[in-house]
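Predict the 3D structure for this chain.
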Amino acid sequence: MPAAEQRERMASLRATVREFNVFRWAGRMLADAGRWRLRARVEARVKRLQLP
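Done. Predicted structure below.
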């Protein structure tokens, strides 16, 4: 592979790693967990209110 292509590919990979780092991953995990918790609370409330 030509040196110029190697540099381009490495630059692209480094940009991807900078963008999708552990902090973004952790933030998304916490946001997803929060949404799941909220959804479970809403579903429990709806279920409780539907009982005769």
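DSSP finds two helices and no strands in the chain.
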